[in-house]
Every structure is written in C-alpha cells, then in structure tokens.
Specification:
By secondary structure, this protein is of the alpha/beta class. The chain is 49% helix and 16% strand. It is built from 31 helices and 23 strands. The chain has an 8-stranded mixed sheet with strand order 8-23-22-21-9-18-20-19, sandwiched between helices. Strands 10, 11, 12, 13, 14, 15, 16 and 17 form an 8-stranded mixed sheet that branches. Strands 1, 2, 3, 4, 5, 6 and 7 form a 7-stranded antiparallel sheet that branches. The radius of gyration is 34 Å and the shape is elongated.
C-alpha cells in the first residue's frame, strides 16, 4: 500500500503516481475500497462507530447523578439494600429514556445529512463517477471544475485556466493561479502552484489531479484544531447556557442549606445527603439536552418533508428567529431560466428578424464566446448557445481568460483565416472599462468618448424594461496566446438583452414571508434599473435602492444607519454582500442569506442562517446551515414555520422546568426543615422526577398555537426568570396548601403524607404542562395527542402505584377515599388558578 509522500510538489507527476500505485486512469473500485478501509474516511473528525455506547454513558455523566449513585451504593453497604436497588433502578430507567430519545434524534439527523453530501468526481476503473468526499482516498484521480471543493491535498496532472480560493488556508484574499509542473522542495505553502489543498475550492477553470493526502494528513487537517473552530453559538444556545448556570447556582445553594439543616436537626447523615442529592436531581432539568435534541431532530425531519435539509441543528432556532431574509434575484424571485431577448447594436436596433446586421454580429460574437468557454459554468452562456446557433467550424480557439468575479468578463482568443480575434463578453461596465472605441451601426469605428452618454442611456432604457444588459467587445490580436492584461483598447460592439421573468406566485410568497414578520431584501449584481423593475413586478414595497458604488462610499457606521431602510442592493460586488449582512446583524436583526454561487461563501458564513440549494456549487453548500432541495421561496416559508414550531416546543420544556418542578422541589426543601421526618424519601423523589419526565418527552410532537409561528421570537432569559418566579411561587402556594391539608385536615402519618404528596406532586406537575404549553385557554388550545395521552397515563399510574405490591418497597401505602378527594380538589383548584395567573401574566409581561 502507498505511504505518505513528503514534498510531493517537488516530484514529477509520474513518480508520484508510481509511489501511490495509481495511474492517470485512476484506481479500480476494489483497490479504492481497500484503501478506504486502511486510511479511513476522508474527514477531519474520525467517525466513531461505537458512539452508541458513548451516548449511553453520557446520560450518566452528570456529577450529581454520579455522586447520587455512589451514595446509594454506600447505603447498601450500610444495610439499606432495597433503597439502593430502587434508586439505581430509577436512575438507570431515566438514563435509558434519555439515551433512546437522543439516539433516535442522532440517527435521523445522520440520514438527513446524507442527502446533501458534497461530492467529488473521480476516475474509477477509467470511468468518471461521483462519490462522497469522505470516500476519496490517496491515489484517486479527481476531475475539478469551477465551484468544486478540493477533496484532499493533490498534485495537478493537467489544468486549464485554473484558479483556486485558498483564503481558508493561506489567508490570501485573491485566487491563486494553478498549473502542473515541478517545484523546488523548499518552496513555501502559498507558492506551491502545482498543489491543491483540502478545504479550498476552484474559482475558475478545470483540472485533473491525483490525491496524495487525505483527512488529518492534509495541510488543512494538520491545523484543523486551529482553523476548524466550533461554529458560533446561536442566541438560543447562549440563552440555554445562561439558564442552566442560573439553575445550577440555585440548586447548589439549596442543596447545601438543606443538607446542613437536616444534619443540624440530628437526622441520619447519609439519608440527609441522599435526600439533598435527590432534590438536586429534581431541580436539575436533566432532560433538557435530550428534549432539545429530540425537538431539533424532529424539526429537521419535518423540514425535510418540506424539502428543507438542516445541516447544523442549532440553526433551526435561528431560522425561526429570522426577521430579515436576503436573497439574490435569479432563481428565487425569478424563474431562473435566463433567456435572450435580443442582441442590440449601439444605435438601439435589435437582431430580431435580422433587422440589424450589426446586432446579428453581436449575437455571433457572443455565441463564439459562450460556445468556447471552459471555465465557470453559468446559465447565461447556456442561454446564448440555445438562442441561436451559428456555424463556427471556421473558428479555432487558441486561448481563454476565464470569467472571474473581479473582472466580471470572459475573453476568448480565436483564429479564422490567419486572423486572431479576442472576443470579450461580460457586465456592461466591465466591458466598457476596457474599450477605447465603439463600432457604430454603419460599421465605422469611432472614439468611445463620443458615444459614452448614448451607450449608458441605451443600457438604462433596456434596464428599465426589465432586461439585464451585457456588453460584447472585440479586438484583433497578433499572438496565439494572451492574458487579462491584453484586455485593453477593445472595440465595443453592442449589447445582449437578457430576461428572467418573475415567478408566477412570488408576490404571494413574499407576502406570506411578510406576514411571518420576515422582511425580504434583494442583493444583486444587476443594474439599478433591472433591480427596480423586478422589485416592482414581484410586488415588494416601493424600492429603496443602494448601489454598490454608493455602498463603497459609506463608512460602516453610516451603512448601519441606512441598511434597515434599504430593500434593494443593486450593482453589488461579491465582497460587499458580507458587509451588508454584518451591518444588518449589528442593528439587531437575525439575518438569513440565500446564496448558491462561488462568491456567496463569505456572506453565507456571516449570516445567522446561511441558506443554499441542492444544486449549488460545493463551496456554497459547505458554508450553508440549511439546504433547500428546491430553489423555491415557498419551501423557505414552510421551513421558517417549522423552525418556529421547534423553537416554541423547546421553550415549553424550559417553562415546565422553571415552574412546577422547581416549585415542588423548593417546597419540599422548605417543609423538610419543619417536619420531624423527610417529606419524601430519596427514592420517592427520583420516582417523582422520572414520572414527570414522561409527558415532557412528548413535547416535540405537541401542537403549536398560530401566534407562536406568526412572528420571530428569541430566547429571553429575563422573561423566563419572571415566568419561573410567578409560576414557581404559584406551585409552592398549592404545595403548602397540600401539606396543610394532609397534616392539619387529614392528620396523615409519615407514610400517608409521602404517598399523598407524591400523588399531588406528580399529577399537578403533569397537568400543569397542559396549561403552560399555550398562551391561550386550556379549553381552546388542544394539546398534541401524544402529550395528552402521556399525561393521562402518568396520572393513572401515579394513582395506582400505592395500591400495587411495589408500594411497600417504595415506602407508600393506600390512601382512604377522603384523601383522594381532597387531593383532587387541590389539583383542580391549582389548574384553575394557573389558567387565570397565565392570562394576567401574558397581559403584563412581554416575551
């Protein structure tokens, strides 16, 4: 098997292929499979096939749980074996439930991610085929084109006009030109022009290369710990973190105080310790990670049904919180099928019907340019080739300077009848910048300065009619090769008028986004006139336009003041997109950006939610958080709704954990200081916690009220804290009412007290979920069937436990009917009061 080849850039291609035991025809499928087994998947993080065991162990990694288990085992050595078995059994069941939920979520997400894998084109058995980047092995021959990501460190065998963006690795802003050859051993990483690196992507041109190193053996892999930082936390994740730390502080203080107080009251130290730890388990929202994972995974599955694939689960929360959506024009607001309306000469005469021979020549030169290009694949060239075909067999292509996003033009050097001709096509301004003369309608060539105003006026007229305008220029050349420096002193020939009609239903879609509280902004490289025409056709509010030139003159502070009022950014350069996104974010917006091109990667990274499409180039799909299987904003609307459903259901668990559970545990801690016995035994507390967890695990399937979907919402810790105080205190009021009823009215002994308190605690905590899950009345907002079923089932199980054979082991005893009636009245009164407090709370407190 081949070994790692040091300094492969300094070796001839034949020698490298020989050492890799490969050939220009690639590997056989059998050999590739053997190498995949030897070297492993081509990634920076090794796949852990045994992660199921790790996932199970993670359910028990909480320090509180570990201490509790150790204390329970110690208790068994002191003679309390039954209690130990009960405690460990309950902890195990709770852990298995969390494991079952998270494993299902993980498996679902793995299947979804497989739908949007970035793929590489390789030669296997001499035939080209697409495989996942993870399956690429040393010795593979890869075929690269513009937009492709580089799947490993490679040596170039053949290339044509290849340029690569290596900013992620070298920090260089401008693309690096690449070609085959042999370099000195000591040449630096950024000067290795014959080498391609994993983690970079092709900007233009084509290449054939052999993969030398994969995974962590690549240059990118060696510094992956530094370069591949954890994605920035979403606002929701930060909020959950703060919430968790807040509960930890409260729990720690409470546990220490209760333990010290119980020891002071001369109760058994070990039992007091177990009681304190059990309280801590009850206070800790230990299911929160599992609930969040399940909610996000279910959200991802639901979104997948609507053709939206989530690559990074935490982005779902930002998707739901998104209030500004930035998009390009082509394929989202328009049909995405560019068509040629006509070629137009400088006099304004069109090629339709052969009315203008000069305009027909514009079409011919545009066709020569489009038919000969071999770099960046784009719909405009395809439209030119389809519009009208010419016989160009007399022309021979000599050279090409491919399109790039700085020059914004494509130039081809052609030969016909011993005459060499450069033909350039591109953005009108980019073409005019390299022209010194213009060819008039009668075939004369004059100084362009004499026609400058007329040319611009004609372009604006075409733009105002909704046409995108390109320029076509030419000049003679006396050489058989050329560079971009030769794009000078050209002659402007005329225009190409292109159209891409708005989608039929786009106005309604944008209206739907607006009703969801999402403002749409268009960012396009097209002219101001074209952008205004499209915006008016799709029914967006009166356009307020900022052009790339005007943007260039603005400071970052000035842009922040204006960006919120602008809904159309026209004539925008690729590097200005990121600046617009950052300015929107700094003004307090949650920003989504939809992009599918090579030049969209930085904006996708900058956005709170990077959105791409399945047909996008590799670099865009890699940068995106969410991938649309169709380039259709209707799909996006449904995705936003699902994101908000997921967000709302996750918050329900947070509200539950900060109300009934917190109130119950706090009340138990307080009453333990007054009673001559523990209000609940440690095993009974853990059982209470386990049973109340069951309904909460179904929250991911719950219905969500329309008002929770109609506008963006964010994690608000202040609101949650207020909610916890109000509903936690309400819960405690009824807890102490239960204590009073059991002790003063029913004169319960210790076993009856614990049984009654256990029943009331579990049933009220389960029932209160039905109240706090909605802002509406419990009678008008129906819970999901799984949540309702689980709640009823837990209430029945709780009522039956004291009357089963296990009651004695758990320390319970059957209660007389009067106990049950009093407890039922307290629970009913609690639900009624909670409904009224909820109504008043939402009237006075904003989320």
């Amino acid at each position: 098997m081949p070994q790692v080849i040091p300094s492969f850039w300094s070796l001839p291609a034949e020698q490298v292929l020989d050492q890799l035991k490969s050939s220009p025809q690639g590997l056989s499928r059998q050999e590739a499979q053997q190498r995949l087994t030897q070297y492993g998947a081509n990634g920076l993080k090794k796949k852990r096939e045994s992660s199921t065991l790790l996932l199970l162990l993670n359910q028990f990694k909480s320090p509180i749980i570990l201490i509790l288990m150790a204390a329970a085992i110690l208790s068994s050595f002191l003679g309390d074996v039954i209690d130990t078995i009960i405690i460990l059994t309950i902890v195990l069941i709770s852990g298995l439930l969390g494991f079952w939920q998270e494993r299902g979520a993980r498996d679902a997400v793995t299947k979804l991610l497989a739908l949007v894998q970035v793929k590489a084109t390789v030669l296997r058995d001499g035939q080209s085929q697409e495989i996942s980047n993870e399956e690429v092995v040393p010795g593979d021959i890869v075929l690269l084109a513009a937009g492709d990501s580089i799947p490993g460190d490679c040596l170039i065998l053949e290339s044509k006009d290849l340029s690569v963006n290596e900013a992620a690795l070298t920090g260089e802003t401008y693309p690096a030109d690449k070609l085959s050859g042999v370099l000195p051993n000591e040449v630096g990483l950024s000067q290795r022009t014959n080498t391609l690196y994993m983690g970079t992507n092709a900007i233009s041109g084509t290449a054939k290369a052999v993969v030398v190193q994969t995974g962590k053996q690549t240059e990118f892999g060696k510094v992956s710990e530094r370069l591949k930082l954890r994605p920035p936390e979403t606002e929701f994740e930060r909020g959950l973190g703060k919430f968790g730390y807040f509960l930890m502080e409260v729990t720690l203080i409470l546990v220490v105080l209760i333990f010290v107080a119980n020891v002071y009251l001369q109760r058994p130290v070990l039992q007091s310790f177990l009681f304190s730890l059990a309280l801590a388990v009850g206070l800790t929202p230990q299911l929160l990670p599992a609930i969040v994972s399940v909610n996000l995974a279910r959200g991802a599955k639901q979104m997948a049904k609507k053709q939206v694939i989530v690559k990074r689960l935490s982005a779902i929360e930002n998707f739901g919180s998104m209030n500004v959506f930035c998009t390009d024009k082509t394929g989202t607001l328009t049909e995405g099928e560019v068509k040629i309306h006509a070629a137009v000469d400088v006099e304004g005469k069109e090629s339709v019907g052969g009315a203008s021979p000069q305009a027909t020549r514009v079409l011919l030169y545009a066709y020569l340019n489009a038919a000969s290009e071999s770099g960046y694949v784009n719909p405009i060239d395809a439209a030119i080739r389809q519009h009208k075909q010419f016989d160009i067999s007399a022309y021979q292509k000599l050279d090409e300077v491919p399109y790039d996003f700085n020059r914004k033009r494509l130039s081809i050097l052609l030969k016909k009848d011993n005459r060499n001709l450069i033909v350039s096509k591109g953005a009108l301004k980019a073409i005019l910048d390299v022209c010194s003369t213009v060819e008039t309608g009668d075939g004369k060539t004059i100084d362009i300065a004499m026609q400058q105003d007329k040319i611009q006026q004609r372009a604006e007229e075409l733009g105002s009619e909704g046409f995108r305008v390109l320029g076509v220029a030419y000049r003679n050349c006396d050489r058989n090769s050329f560079t971009k420096d030769d794009e000078t002193n050209m002659t402007f020939l005329g225009y190409l008028a292109l159209f891409d009609p708005p989608k039929a239903d786009i106005a309604d879609t944008l209206k739907d986004l607006g009703l969801l509280g999402v403002t749409t902004k268009m960012i396009t490289g097209d002219s101001r006139a074209v952008a205004i025409s499209i915006i008016e056709q799709v029914g967006l509010p009166k356009p307020k336009v900022l052009t790339g030139g005007e943007l260039q003159e603005l400071s970052d502070e000035a842009l922040m003041h204006r960006v919120g009022k602008i809904n159309v950014f026209a004539e925008v350069e690729p590097n200005q997109k990121e600046r617009i996104i950052i300015a929107l974010k700094k003004t307090g917006n949650v920003v989504g950006y939809l992009g599918d091109g090579i030049n969209d990667a930085s904006a996708l990274h900058a956005a709170d939610v990077g959105i791409s499409v399945e047909s996008a180039v590799d670099v865009a799909k890699e940068a995106a958080d969410i991938v649309l299987m169709q380039k259709d904003l209707n799909v996006l609307v449904e995705g936003v709704k699902e994101g908000r459903v997921t967000f709302a259901n996750t918050l329900k668990y947070v509200f539950m954990a900060t109300s009934a559970n917190f109130g119950n545990m706090f009340s138990m801690a307080g009453i333990s200081l007054v009673l001559p016995f523990l209000p609940l035994l440690p095993s009974q507390i853990l059982l209470t916690n386990l049973l109340t967890d069951f309904p909460e695990m179904t929250i991911a399937t719950d219905r969500v009220d329309r008002e929770m979907v109609n506008k963006p919402r964010r994690m608000n810790i202040t609101f949650i804290r207020n909610f916890m105080v109000v509903f936690g205190l309400l819960s405690s009021v009824f807890d102490y009412l239960t204590f009073a009823a059991l002790l003063l009215l029913l004169h319960a002994n210790s076993a009856q007290f614990r049984t009654g308190w256990f029943m009331e605690s579990v049933i009220s905590a389960s029932m209160i979920v039905l109240v706090i899950r909605t802002r509406q009345s419990i009678l008008t907002s129906k819970p999901g069937k799984y949540l309702l079923t689980a709640t009823i089932a837990i209430a029945i199980v709780t009522l039956l436990i004291p009357y089963t054979p296990v009651a004695g082991l758990l320390g319970f005893q059957p209660l007389p009917i009067e106990f049950l009636l009093v407890l039922a009245a307290i629970v009913g009164l609690y639900i009624i009061c909670a409904e009224n407090v909820k109504r008043i709370f939402y009237q006075h407190v904003q989320s």
